[in-house]
Design a protein that fits this description.
The chain has 253 residues and is of the alpha+beta class. It has helices spanning 32-44, 77-88, 142-152, 200-212, 218-227; strands spanning 5-13, 51-52, 61-71, 92-100, 110-120, 134-135, 154-157, 172-183, 186-193, 242-249.
Amino acid sequence: MNVPRTIRVDLAYDGTGFRGWAAQRDPQIRTVEGVLTVALEELLREPVSLSVAGRTDAGVHARGQVASFRTTSARTPAQIRDFLNGRLAPEISISRAGDVPAGFDARFSASAREYRYVIDGSEAPDPFTGRFTWHRPGALDVTQMRDAAKVLLGSHDFTSFCRHPGAGRSTVRDLERLSVRRGDDLVVIGARANAFLHQMVRILVGTLVHVGEGRLSPGDVRRILAARNRSLAPKAAPARGLTLERVVYGRRR
């Protein structure tokens, strides 16, 4: 019998047709984890349990997702990559597969995650990018949005900006970066943290958009953060504008 080893898979996917990353009990519910697991088990001829860096929600995309699993199969990383791409691309694309040390875990070994949210402020939606942007016509006050973003930086209890994870689970996260930049008709929001809570990025984006519209001030955002009350923050921005861009391992920089 072959010695068990750990495989890391770097992948990207269009989340439009998936009910998020996490596999569901009902096999008819299509998820990234579910589709990937079925393909891997077909190739490796053994059960596969995936660990993932970011459990993306329904409709959220990934450019730099990372998953890992243990296997006793003799299949090479190149064979795994090529088989998965043959079955799943272009909806799911494997850029790299490789052996990693036994202690590596895609979720627990990660030191930071980076997300990107794109808002399209043009008058008419673009059919070629519409699956990956929130079409919201009209200008936003980017200067005010940046001032509000600064309020949120650092280690805080983000209860006001997430779906609560349940009793006994921490809602403290270290938000290292929350940037807002404009390019033509697009407003791009970048977020980096040690980890994110459920819907946290989308709720932060929804809040910044309210600031950009003049419906909230940076001071209001500070009060919402301190209140630790989800009902005070705006609803989450649509999933389609959000992409997991990168997962950081080792020293954060």
